[in-house]
Amino acid sequence: MSRRIVGPFNRVEGDLEIALEIGDGRVQSAQVNSPLYRGFEQILLGKAPLDALVFVPRICGICSVAQSAASAQALAQAAGIEPPPNGRIAANLMLATENLADHLTHFYLYFMPDFARAEYAQQPWFAGAEARFKAMRGAAAAEMLPARAGFMRVMGLIAGKWPHTLALQPGGSSRPLQASEKIRLRLILREFRGFLEQALFGDALENVAALASVDQLAAWGAAHAASDLGRFLAIARELSLQQLGRAGDLFMSYGSFPQEAGRLFAAGIWDGAPAPLDLGAIREDVRHAWYAEADAPQAPAAGATLPLAEKAGAYSWCKAPRYAGRVAEVGALARQLVAGHPLARALAVEGGGNVLSRVVMRVVEIARVLPEMERWVEQLAPGEPYCVAADLPDDADGVGLVEAARGSLGHWLSVRRGRIHNYQIIAPTTWNFSPRDAQQMPGALEQALVGVPAGEGGATPAAVQHVVRSFDPCMVCTVH
Amino acid sequence: MRVLWLQSGGCGGCTLSWLGSEIAPLFALLEDEGIEMLWHPSLSEASAEEAFAVIAECSGGTRPFDVLCVEGALLRGPQGSGRFHLMAGSGAPMTEWIRLLADRAQHVVAIGSCAAYGGITSGGANPTDACGLQYEGNVAGGLLGPDFHAAGGLPVIAVAGCPPHPDWISETLIQLARGTLTRDALDEFGRPRFFADQLVHHGCPRNEYYEFKASAAKLSDQGCLMENLGCKGTQAHADCNLRPWNGGGSCLRGGYPCIRCTEPGFEEPGHPFAQTPKIAGIPIGLPADMPKAWFVALAALSKSATPARVRENARADHTLKAPGTRLIKR
Hints:
The structure holds two protein chains of two kinds. The relative contact order of chain A is 0.20. In chain A, helix 3 runs antiparallel to helix 4. In chain A, 41% of the residues lie in helices and 15% in strands. The two termini of chain A are 34 Å apart. Chain A has helices at 40-43, 52-55, 64-79, 85-111, 126-133, 139-151, 153-159, 179-200, 205-209, 214-223, 228-239, 332-339, 342-351, 355-379, 428-432, 444-449, 462-470, 475-479, and strands at 2-6, 17-23, 26-33, 168-169, 172-173, 251-253, 256-258, 263-265, 268-270, 274-275, 282-285, 320-323, 396-404, 407-416, 419-426. Chain B is of the alpha/beta class. Chain B has ten helices and eleven strands. Chain B has helices at 13-19, 26-32, 48-60, 94-104, 113-117, 166-178, 193-196, 207-211, 292-304, 308-314, and strands at residues 2-7, 36-39, 67-71, 74-75, 107-111, 130-131, 135-136, 139-140, 157-159, 278-279, 282-283. In chain B, the strands form four sheets. Chain B has a five-stranded parallel beta sheet, sandwiched between helices. Chain B has a two-stranded antiparallel ribbon with strand order 4-6. In chain B, strands 7-8 form a two-stranded antiparallel ribbon. In chain B, a hairpin with a 2-residue loop joins strand 10 (278-279) and strand 11. Classes of the chains: A alpha+beta, B alpha/beta. Chains A and B meet through helix 2, helix 4, helix 6, helix 7 and strand 5 of A and helix 1, helix 2 and helix 3 of B.
């Protein structure tokens, strides 16, 4: 048995270190360490409640709008207000833009470059993968960056800028869009659709979103082998990525994109079958994290964040959230499983959460959501209000639950005497990359890494990197 | 020009902003200008031991490089140990790595207000004892000390902003690559003057509302955000309303106030961000170089001269009255 410390683990958002115990050529156990602590939950204490909207987006440069959305929801609940329809639609457009841009960034810049690593030089598909996906030099990035920048003009138009907008308010949006701006939005979305249908899919978005079974996916991949998703599917089949990186297969989603009634993607749990989400079942355990411990794991609203750099048995700044005492996985796969997407459910039946199913559902979600954005733009009603004022009572509580690109994000806010009294955040990667809990139960990535082939020397094997990046981790959100 | 890029106590948003470069796609721009990323945490292929080797060789002097870019604040806590950020795979505080690397680099660039001055990460009670590379708020010092000059002769170059505009980062690196960024090209807080010698107020789309002091009462109103909603555009050094963000945006164009994010100490303004502090009904924090008495007199005069159109549109979220038409006499 040998021990290997893997870090700095890059092409993830933020800093990540993983300790692997390796024996018989495979990972026997893993410890995931989030090595950076900034203390946002402490920084926010005592501040005017609405100032949270300046601080929380800056928890994360890639999930910035998701953080704003969660905070705005928590503040809206505390103020007892609801955005008017225009405000709700504008907020959905902002979050959808960020989610889709993040999925694209992950696929092209963070995940695919690993197939251009020298380790794969002998593979028949290597030359194609290298030409297309080599980090910073591949042809795909040269096409994707202008497409992404073009798409982000949505944010320039509806949110001023990205990242770190202050347009998202508890009462809606500070940016009222007029009729001519609806036309510009439509044109921007049309141009982005063009890139996706040409490069990523080589097919209409609607056809990709309608894929409903493992066989259909395989047939689609064979028929669209020259598209970037097709290239991934071909490599994935060669490397059997559907057998790599399985965790506990309990999936959670807070649900996303509020509509006139309900949410576009429903909230819930997937445990081999759908189940309702019980927020009261969430606890945060800090036994192996560098924090002072209460008597028992705390519900988030009652949680505290008290750093303790010297603590026996601790190995991460990440807390360990648990759902009814169990490890839950979050992300696009979980979101689409809970929302009932047939392909997500078929992939889960085939092999649960794994490198293939996580990556496929992230990319399919792009095809699923962009047509919704096109519809939302048409629903904006210029002349009608975009924002109502938020007057917070001196004492109030609020919870904000959103789906960031990489999964479920929750903010728990309490206001006393007009100031922030407690602010607790559980981010998507806090769920996926949690350390062990008091029962010694490893977190989702820690489970997913067990059994992954790993040589005893040399560079960190690509398989380990595929598993880690398949979660699209955001380490700056994880600890905040 | 070889660039080593490290991240510490920040959000990574400066890199994400930079990726949105519109003047040219980022990777093409770097290649065209001869800027080589020795390693970047979000973009490079090299991971784990490969990445560690690059950083260790640069800090040990066996691999020459030109520019050290640091994104994120430097975390000195707890109790001066730097343990709030041990660089992954090294067991050593990031602050130590950066001290070593800063001594080897020709130029040291702070990317964003966290790396420059401490920024958001140093807000509130500053639980991590965060600071900038050469400033702690507006006080010279920070991690490297007030007298630090990199081997190339310049102090820390501060591409401030939360986040910085993509072009601010690109143009700073291009000027360094071409050798045209001199001491004179930096302002008193180390910011390149090409963006810092402007005010956010310049080119503000709400200029007519400002002229007449026709003010918004709440966010989403069209009026000027200075009187009631905390806007610091007349004091903030940046060209945000002259150099469009994400196709054509800016904070003001997004309907929310400038929070002065390119200035040292912006994270603690001493009042709620979107609320203008006033004394006897008059906003404190007037334009930096305008005599207060004149401002008050002009404001009173312009308020009484405000056209009804401007006054009514200022408190609406869309234009109620269009500008009148004056027929040209032939």
